């Protein structure tokens, strides 16, 4: 099991395997698995930043927000100062308002999927 302090990587640039910037790591979706909290996905890019700042609730005309959703195993965590994808960008899920927030709680206290 890998333990990582999220505040160490929040806002860090994420690069693709060729060294090109993909975006900044802005958000993570955490879910409960029994008594443990697991983070199955990480949100990268301006769309994720808008979600973190709750700007996805406000219509912002002329603002193009892009982003990606990466599974934990699609990011190389060995150097928290320089995060690198372990796969090509086209293998990541595109970040849209509809795909955002998969780890949010439902009214009954469970986790929506």
Question: How would you characterize this protein structure?
Answer:
The chain has 113 residues and is mostly beta strands. The protein has a single domain (10-94), classed as PRC-barrel domain (SH3 type barrels, Roll), CATH 2.30.30.240. Helices cover 10% and strands 34% of the residues. It is built from two helices and seven strands, in the order αβββαββββ. It has helices at 6-9, 46-52, and strands at 13-15, 21-33, 36-45, 67-71, 75-76, 83-85, 93-94. It has a seven-stranded mixed beta sheet with strand order 5-6-1-2-3-4-7. A hairpin with a 2-residue loop joins strand 2 and strand 3. The protein is globular and about 40 Å long. The model is unreliable at 98-113 (pLDDT under 50).
- CATH architecture type: Roll
Rg result: 14 Å
Sheet with the most strands, sense and barrel status? 7 strands, mixed
Task: Tell the overall outline.
Answer: globular
Strand order of the largest sheet: 5-6-1-2-3-4-7
Tell me the distance between the termini: 23 Å
Q: What would the CATH topology be?
A: SH3 type barrels
CATH class: Mainly Beta
Q: What is the overall pLDDT average?
A: 77
| Percent range for β-strand residues | 25-35%
Which superfamily, in CATH terms, is the homologous superfamily?
Answer: PRC-barrel domain
Which consecutive residue ranges, at least 5 long each, have pLDDT under 50? 98-113
Number of helical segments with 4 or more residues: 2
> How many domains make up the 3D coordinates?
1
Question: Based on DSSP secondary structure assignment, what is the total number of beta strands?
Answer: 7
Q: What is the H/E string? A: HEEEHEEEE
Structural class: mainly beta
Helix content: under 10%
